[in-house]
């Protein structure tokens, strides 16, 4: 079989990422609510808000320590998570009960809650014991930006500034 080089096609060179519109920051806010109010003001005045973005800058991870984690608290946290999971699974199995639907649904949900709480408490104790005191505190973690920038497509950025009355 002969190979005809004229019929061979080469895929186009596509090293570039599809372009997104060039945007410019027209304002910076310390609180999200203020940035939201600026977008709302643009919307109220008929500005094409689909060309606007609120961008969080300078993300910081904050882990707020909520207390000491000892064996009773580890068991309680595990029991709470296990109870919710067990009740949900019991409720789902109860939905499949055709003989006595309501009683079966509630009974399986309660059995699931109790069984899940016991298993969860045991797992909570086991995990706490296996950590060997390395992380014996409870915490809540959140990620939040320090500032929020109002970004507008370059083509309409000046219009946005005028619409908001910031061009003075």
UniProtKB/TrEMBL annotation:
Signal peptide span: none
Keyword Methyltransferase among record annotations: no
Residue ranges, annotated region (Disordered): 1-22
Keywords of the record: Membrane, Transmembrane, Transmembrane helix
Pfam (any one): YflT
Domain General stress protein 17M-like: 25-92
Membrane-spanning parts: 78-99, 105-127
UniProt-recorded name of the protein: General stress protein 17M-like domain-containing protein
């Amino acid at each position: 079989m002969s190979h005809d080089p004229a019929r061979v096609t080469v895929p186009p060179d596509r090293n570039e990422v599809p372009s997104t519109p060039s945007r410019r920051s027209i304002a910076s806010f310390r609180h999200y609510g203020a940035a939201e109010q600026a977008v709302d003001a643009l919307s109220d005045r008929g500005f094409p808000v689909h060309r606007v973005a609120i961008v969080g800058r300078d993300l910081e991870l904050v882990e707020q320590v909520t207390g000491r984690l000892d064996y009773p608290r580890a068991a309680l946290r595990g029991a709470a998570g296990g109870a919710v999971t067990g009740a949900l699974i019991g409720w789902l199995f109860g939905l499949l009960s055709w003989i006595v639907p309501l009683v079966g649904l509630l009974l399986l949900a309660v059995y699931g809650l109790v069984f899940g709480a016991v298993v969860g408490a045991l797992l909570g104790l086991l995990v706490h014991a296996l950590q060997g005191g390395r992380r014996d505190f409870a915490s809540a973690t959140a990620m939040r930006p320090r500032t929020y920038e109002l970004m507008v497509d370059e083509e309409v950025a000046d219009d946005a500034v005028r619409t908001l009355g910031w061009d003075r």
